[in-house]
Structures are given as C-alpha cells and as structure tokens.
Specification:
With 200 residues, the protein is α/β, with parallel strands linked by helices. It contains six helices and seven strands; from the N terminus they run H-H-E-E-E-H-E-H-E-H-E-E-H. Strand 4, helix 4 and strand 5 form a beta-alpha-beta unit.
Length: 200
C-alpha cells in the first residue's frame, strides 16, 4: 500500500513539474514574439536612460517599444531615430478603405505643419497582409506621399503594437512616451493639428 502511495505521489510531482516547465516556456516564447527586436529589459534600459522611472509598453505614459524596419529604398529606420520629435506612428495597408481616405490628409498635414510642430509621420505598412509588395509602391506614387514609410514584412511590429484594425495610430512625444492612440481614420488635416497641439 505504501509503495503505491509513493509511486502515485512521484507521478503527481512529475506531472506538476512538467506543467510548470511548460507554462514557463510558453510565457518566454510569448515574450519573444511580443518583443521581436530584443529583450524587453534591454529595450527598457536603452529607451529610458533619460527617464529611469518610465515603463515600457503600449499604455498611455509608457515608453513606446522600439523597432527597426526597412523603407522601400532599403533604408533601415528605427522608431528611436525620431527622439526629439513628436511622432505620428500610423499602421496601414494599401487595400484599407479608411487608409485610402486618411493618407492624403496625413500628407496635407505633413506638408503644412511638420516643421512648425516638430512632427514626424512614420507610416508602417502591414506588408505581410498585402496581396503584393508592388501595391505599396503604387499607392505611395498615386497619393504622392513624402513622409517615411516602412515595411512590416513579417507582421512582427503589428503584433508588437497589438494592431487589431487599420488604420491604427499612436502619438509619441519627444521623449518616446505614448501620449495618445486610436483606431480609425483622421477626417481632416486640422484634426491632426489639434491632436498634436493637445499633446505637446
């Protein structure tokens, strides 16, 4: 009887240990997927050196996670390149109806106010969801867009920023802190101006 109890307890302990190890591995894999550009601790140290009490994340008043993507010309662009400017970080796709409406409005704002407002628009194309990469070039040419556009070819940044619908926008201040965010299109250039004036 005692032998059966010992064997039963041993099996139970092994099952519990297996479940704990599996849970830890799952959480580690999720963290790697959520922050593909490196360990969150490494990002936190680098991005918060001027503000050690800041937290990294997607909530208001958190430091926006950094990332690096290529432009259509092959130039590597990091979000952190724009420290010192307010960033209008926009996620879009060429087939998205609201994006088609919004992009010319963003360009209009960019031409009128980018210098006065010290703003950079960074548009992240959800390339992994495009039918063909060529569509992105055609869209940019058609709408004569001049602000930086980068390609999320693997969907990593879409997952990192938890984009659930297009367009999605985050407003990031000069210190890299998220100060606003919304899903849905901007209706006119003055609306962008009002948002930027409010958060600066």
């Amino acid at each position: 009887m005692k032998m059966k109890q010992v064997v039963g307890m041993s099996i139970s302990i092994l099952i519990i240990a297996f479940m704990v190890i599996t849970t830890i591995k799952t959480k580690m894999n999720h963290a790697e997927e959520e922050y593909p550009s490196g360990l969150i601790e490494d990002q936190l140290e680098e991005l918060t050196k001027n503000n050690p009490s800041a937290k990294l994340g997607l909530e208001m008043n958190h430091v926006a996670p950094n990332f690096e993507l290529q432009s259509l010309t092959g130039e590597k662009i990091q979000l952190s390149d724009y420290r010192g400017k307010t960033v209008f970080l926009n996620f879009w796709a060429s087939w998205c109806g609201p994006c088609i409406t919004e992009m010319p409005i963003m360009e209009s704002y960019y031409q009128q106010y980018r210098d006065d407002d010290n703003v950079e628009i960074l548009a992240v194309n959800m390339t992994s969801n495009e039918r063909r990469k060529k569509s992105v070039n055609e869209f940019i040419s058609k709408h004569e867009l001049t602000f930086p556009i980068v390609l999320d070819e693997q969907g990593e940044i879409e997952r990192l920023y938890k984009v659930l619908g297009y367009p999605t926008t985050y407003i990031i201040d000069e210190d890299g802190i998220i100060v606003d965010g919304f899903t849905g299109p901007i209706k006119k250039a003055d609306d962008i101006k009002k948002i930027i004036d409010r958060v600066r």
